[in-house]
């Protein structure tokens, strides 16, 4: 079995029941492993066996259910074709490209038309494929081939239909208001009281503007389910056709005016529901603002060195290995490594870290970050979908498209909700017609329509996904990537955080913390001498001393000889001086006496530091302490976790003395030291057996098993790819302050979901009885229903303002 995952953009959904129906329809297909449809972001995630079923069959299934799959088309001019074999080769090559639905190449016109899924490929990927096949292509119309914003087009279409509907409905409302006793003085043109004029005004609203509801209801009922469209179609059709019946009946009695018509009810309902849909679509658009911001960060143009000259090219055309010139104030187009130059780079848009970070040769830089001051020359290492920015966008989109466990409740409710409402509406009609107001068809109809309209389950379907979209988007802006909606929901229950030491609490790089000498005036000279002596060593401790020396003088002196003494230290000749650096035993073996005044080894080692003794020409001149330094924010982050009532544990393979010394610095009381990588998962399991909900935070390959076993695995973005793959959450910048932020965002998001679900259910629970009691005019019910969805989305959008 070959599992493939595809994402589709679905159009035509009107409520959560639509999403559930598509989901069930896809899941029933042979070869489909799983299908998740998100009503809020209008995306479907489908995993299937490509040997059993293909993408086109999945799209056909969605269309057979009454919806459509969004595809885009691009027109190309193709150069380099010489015969029919060329066009056939390009066609076959493009049709094999993931995301391409159909490619048609015209040899005579030297053009191509390609239909593709924008979630899986782009116009630039298509052009690159043609170039890889040995030809060239350019965009026929727009050089940038910007995709149509279909959501924007949908909002524009709905807005246009709303205004047409409103213009046609306004005279009907005018006539309706004129019927009230308190508006008896209101002038109403005689023509508006004419039933045939009202019929003429209501008909286009009912069958042209409202056609979307009939279409949705037809497909829903054909597939043995019911959705919001069924309720709207039933309610408005009842009002419209009853009015038509009264008009036809009036012909037999030769009555010219009918005061009991309900044309305005059906027209106003459709107008208000459409207005609600416009507001809902606009608000839903804001819930993915974080993704749009990230997508817009990458610059369109790059400056590349070609043949000794700097040329301006499209960012999409940058190749791996290209040397790019990044001017001050410019965005970096791709991920790369600094080749030459130094500058501060603002990475806040990716990490949430406000302060710019100094970058120099051999340091990594990322697409969409901003070069603040100096000129940088970088070597491109990752392009297109390989960049950190692209991976962040992909993770956030997948999280927004997934379903949280809490949403299953909403799905179950909305799945049975519409049939129950239809039943309630039928009972309402019967009670009114046969008991409350015997024989009064109009009164029974009004209450029935109000029940049908107010009960639409849109708000219920939007409650969870909009909160997940807003919460995960805001988290991404803060440098927190939740992989799935489930991980976002589970994180709220965490009561224990287990922290790896090296690279998580500490920086993971040894650094000189103490350089103790007799005379302060000799200090700089001895530091440079120590760095020069260690310059030929590859040991991590040596690198710490070399880095320490380069801060004083970037140019180190050369040593005339060098000898590494494994497990003990080094011996080197610098400026004709013999420099010995290493353990106490090394000095003892060389008959060098340790100076009592400089001998602070015991106290330094008690603090978890590695101690080295330095001798020049057989005289002990300095004692050096080296340690893996604690990150600047670790202590503050752990204090915040304690304030939140979180139990914090340090888990490390390091020796107990060093581990406890680091724990004292950051305020951790619980330390588990000397644990082998294979046993870290056992420690997590033991904590879980005590009934704790455990989050494991790590950055290395050795942390991966523990990250998988934990209830929530949190990987530091500065760590290994293996750790990030195993984790549920990734902290892009590796800052521990993001851990309390992660817990906070999860708690706020789940609280927001519960608020939405409560109000959506409370709204229906209160609204249906009021409507059934005849206390709610149908048009008021329609307005309330339309704006309930908007209120749910607006509540979710509050998450985007979390500090």
From TrEMBL:
<keyword id="KW-0547">Nucleotide-binding</keyword>
<keyword id="KW-0406">Ion transport</keyword>
<feature type="transmembrane region" description="Helical">
    <location>
        <begin position="413"/>
        <end position="435"/>
    </location>
</feature>
<feature type="transmembrane region" description="Helical">
    <location>
        <begin position="756"/>
        <end position="773"/>
    </location>
</feature>
<dbReference type="Pfam" id="PF00702">
    <property type="entry name" value="Hydrolase"/>
</dbReference>
<dbReference type="InterPro" id="IPR018303">
    <property type="entry name" value="ATPase_P-typ_P_site"/>
</dbReference>
<dbReference type="InterPro" id="IPR023299">
    <property type="entry name" value="ATPase_P-typ_cyto_dom_N"/>
</dbReference>
<protein>
    <recommendedName>
        <fullName>Copper-exporting P-type ATPase</fullName>
        <ecNumber>7.2.2.8</ecNumber>
    </recommendedName>
</protein>
<feature type="transmembrane region" description="Helical">
    <location>
        <begin position="441"/>
        <end position="464"/>
    </location>
</feature>
<dbReference type="InterPro" id="IPR017969">
    <property type="entry name" value="Heavy-metal-associated_CS"/>
</dbReference>
<feature type="transmembrane region" description="Helical">
    <location>
        <begin position="260"/>
        <end position="279"/>
    </location>
</feature>
<feature type="transmembrane region" description="Helical">
    <location>
        <begin position="161"/>
        <end position="184"/>
    </location>
</feature>
<dbReference type="InterPro" id="IPR008250">
    <property type="entry name" value="ATPase_P-typ_transduc_dom_A_sf"/>
</dbReference>
<dbReference type="InterPro" id="IPR006122">
    <property type="entry name" value="HMA_Cu_ion-bd"/>
</dbReference>
<dbReference type="InterPro" id="IPR023214">
    <property type="entry name" value="HAD_sf"/>
</dbReference>
<dbReference type="Pfam" id="PF00122">
    <property type="entry name" value="E1-E2_ATPase"/>
</dbReference>
<keyword id="KW-0813">Transport</keyword>
<dbReference type="InterPro" id="IPR059000">
    <property type="entry name" value="ATPase_P-type_domA"/>
</dbReference>
<keyword id="KW-0186">Copper</keyword>
<dbReference type="InterPro" id="IPR036163">
    <property type="entry name" value="HMA_dom_sf"/>
</dbReference>
<dbReference type="InterPro" id="IPR027256">
    <property type="entry name" value="P-typ_ATPase_IB"/>
</dbReference>
<dbReference type="InterPro" id="IPR036412">
    <property type="entry name" value="HAD-like_sf"/>
</dbReference>
<keyword id="KW-0677">Repeat</keyword>
<keyword id="KW-0067">ATP-binding</keyword>
<feature type="domain" description="HMA">
    <location>
        <begin position="72"/>
        <end position="138"/>
    </location>
</feature>
<keyword id="KW-0479">Metal-binding</keyword>
<dbReference type="InterPro" id="IPR023298">
    <property type="entry name" value="ATPase_P-typ_TM_dom_sf"/>
</dbReference>
<dbReference type="InterPro" id="IPR001757">
    <property type="entry name" value="P_typ_ATPase"/>
</dbReference>
<keyword id="KW-0187">Copper transport</keyword>
<dbReference type="InterPro" id="IPR006121">
    <property type="entry name" value="HMA_dom"/>
</dbReference>
<dbReference type="Pfam" id="PF00403">
    <property type="entry name" value="HMA"/>
</dbReference>
<keyword id="KW-0597">Phosphoprotein</keyword>
<feature type="domain" description="HMA">
    <location>
        <begin position="4"/>
        <end position="70"/>
    </location>
</feature>
<keyword id="KW-1133">Transmembrane helix</keyword>
<dbReference type="InterPro" id="IPR044492">
    <property type="entry name" value="P_typ_ATPase_HD_dom"/>
</dbReference>
<comment type="similarity">
    <text>Belongs to the cation transport ATPase (P-type) (TC 3.A.3) family. Type IB subfamily.</text>
</comment>
<feature type="transmembrane region" description="Helical">
    <location>
        <begin position="196"/>
        <end position="214"/>
    </location>
</feature>
<keyword id="KW-0460">Magnesium</keyword>
<keyword id="KW-0472">Membrane</keyword>
<feature type="transmembrane region" description="Helical">
    <location>
        <begin position="226"/>
        <end position="248"/>
    </location>
</feature>
<keyword id="KW-1278">Translocase</keyword>
<keyword id="KW-1003">Cell membrane</keyword>
